[in-house]
């Protein structure tokens, strides 16, 4: 049995969840309520993201480095 294949909608939901946690300072409970998930499901997703070690940035342009993008850059607006 293969696992769930992530879709664009999954990516966008996860980016929004990260924004709410990291920028808006929402709790896992608040995020869970917003997305119709359990608090544990939110914490599990955040744990899996946080445990991935970031690679050294080889970006030449400052805008492409961590922290260089505006909030909600994936929406095409700030």
């Amino acid at each position: 049995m293969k696992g769930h294949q992530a879709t664009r909608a999954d990516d966008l939901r996860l980016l929004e969840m990260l924004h709410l946690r990291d920028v808006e300072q929402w709790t896992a409970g608040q995020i869970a309520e917003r997305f119709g998930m359990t608090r544990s499901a939110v914490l599990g997703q955040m744990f899996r993201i946080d445990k991935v070690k970031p690679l050294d940035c080889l970006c030449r342009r400052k805008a492409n480095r961590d922290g260089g993008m505006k909030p909600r850059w994936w929406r095409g607006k700030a």
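The radius of gyration is 14 Å. The chain has a mean pLDDT of 87.
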